[in-house]
Amino acid sequence: MKRVVNVQSVHDYNTVIGIETLHPLVSVVDFSKAKPEPNPGIDFISFEFYAVFLKHGKHCTIRYGRNYYDYQDGTLIFIAPGQVVNIEEDGEDYQPEGYAMLFHPDMLFGTSLAKKMKEYSFFSYDIHEALHISLRERQIVLDCFSKISQELNQSLDRHSNSLIVSNIELFLGYCARFYDRQFISRNNINKGISEKFEALLHDYFQTDKPQVLGPPSVKYCAEQLHLSPNYFGDLIKKKTGKSAQEQIHSKVIDVAKERIFDSTKSISEIAYELGFKYPHHFSRFFKQRVGYSPNAYRTLS
């Protein structure tokens, strides 16, 4: 029978894998020092803290929903508090390989990093959007883990928390850089996303979807392209210099301009066709971006 496990604290996780807890809110795990684990089948696990895994070997795969993480040797995966994943383990007993860093949100209270965590959107990326790192990048990751571990292995003092949090922030900064590189180096996998996005928007306005669903959202477009909203948004921003939302708005304006010049349609009809619930919302949206009201723009023709 499948079990659902909620791991509420860093200490709880350390206890499961048999390592000492040096700090109640932070842990750096070397899985070679953890106890061998039995094969429990498939466990649904929810962490109440941030978890970053760098593991080796093929004994354990991690699944989110119906799909598997794009997860192999030299891969980092990021799990946010509350995210539920499946752990599938093959074999009888096995010795995990690799490393993990765990840190509870409470560790960040009162720090600048607490305000910046939302910037690290890769904690919300989907299963097939893991970070693949080179040997050189792997060493940088391990250096960051080592610095945090050194702080945990000495007597805690008034500088400890700030130094640990600073090194977590340094690590996350490197990961943001590595993802920027990956958007380029794995271009063959991401190839055509921006073109597919444009085609998706074009086709959207050729149907009655705007009247039914409203103007296209970033979430809708990401789902149609089988990407998470955050990864999709970051990818489009890196490739085009504009956010996905900006491109959606530009498309709405382009379609609106084309239809405004059709004098057989009222501005209200056009607003409804584009998915706006109220015509005055469309008029305000159009004027903010074009500088003219729809009626004033129509007279320019």
The ordered H/E elements are EHEEEEEEEEEEHEHHHHHHHHHHH
Helix content: 40-55%
Shape: elongated
Strands of the widest sheet, in order across it, are: 1-4-9-6-7
Biggest beta-sheet profile: 5 strands, mixed
The assigned structural class equals: alpha+beta
Average of the residue pLDDT scores: 85
Q: How many β strands by DSSP?
A: 12
Uncertain runs: 63-71
Strand content: 15-25%
Radius of gyration: 24 Å
Q: Roughly how many Å apart are the termini? A: 69 Å
Count of DSSP-assigned helices: 13
Strands, helices and their partners?
Layout: E1 3-7, H1 10-17, E2 26-30, E3 37-38, E4 42-47, E5 50-56, E6 60-64, E7 67-68, E8 75-79, E9 84-89, E10 93-94, E11 97-103, H2 112-116, E12 131-132, H3 135-152, H4 160-185, H5 187-190, H6 193-204, H7 209-213, H8 218-224, H9 229-240, H10 244-260, H11 267-273, H12 279-290, H13 294-299
Parallel strand pairs: 1-4
Antiparallel strand pairs: 2-11, 3-10, 4-9, 5-8, 5-11, 6-7, 6-9, 8-12
What does this structure look like?
- This protein is of the alpha+beta class and 301 residues long.
- 46% of the residues lie in helices and 18% in strands.
- It contains 13 helices and 12 strands.
- It has helices spanning 10-17, 112-116, 135-152, 160-185, 187-190, 193-204, 209-213, 218-224, 229-240, 244-260, 267-273, 279-290, 294-299, and strands at 3-7, 26-30, 37-38, 42-47, 50-56, 60-64, 67-68, 75-79, 84-89, 93-94, 97-103, 131-132.
- A 5-stranded mixed sheet has the order 1-4-9-6-7.
- β6 (60-64) and β7 form a beta hairpin.
- The longest helix is centred in the middle third of the chain and has 26 residues, at 160-185.
- The termini are far apart.
